[in-house]
Amino acid sequence: MRYEARYFLRWATERRLASNVEIPVRPKSSTGHRAIEADERWQLLNQLWHDSTIPLDVRFGGSLVLLFGQHLSRIVRLTTDRIAGNDHAVTLVLDRTPVSLPEPLAALAVQLRDQRLAAQPSAKPAATCLLFPGRPASHPISTEPFRKRLARHGIQARPARNAALTEFAADLPAPVLAELLGLHIGTTVAWTKTLKRDWMAYLEARATESNAAGPTSE
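Above: the chain's sequence. Below: its structure in token form.
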């Protein structure tokens, strides 16, 4: 929490309410691409999909982070018209391309959509409303409160998102990944390059070890 206090203390120091206090800037370079392990990722998804004691919006929003690597800023702006279909086939439009949702995530999406539409005032036509409303309900919830809600259920947004993007970047070309997940092409190119670089470093290390060991005898 010392990083969170930095801004207040800077304000207080400028007004001579505090002095001789130094708080470091939050480190970025060492954790920029930190990701959770694949086993933990799927364990969290399984919990979100089957634990009905977790709030519905956390279950759905957390799944979008863990499964599709979505930014919280995009998730909180999603509206009910982005979810199409029924209990048999459900799609979600993250940007422009509909993405088929697997079960039981599809059922969660329909349930959240219908819940939000049912909460509409009776005098207002049930057309489109936010899936993640804030206060007032006409505005989306801010990303920081939603990030904290996810964290209370064991989901650290950035490492979870990194894990999802790592898996996608290993299997899909950057342009396809950008269109599917609604990401900027520069972001997907950077991820695919990073993943390729990591694999190249691994292969080079293995080659070095093999050369150092010399030929094996039959």
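Residues 185-213 form the longest helix (29 residues).
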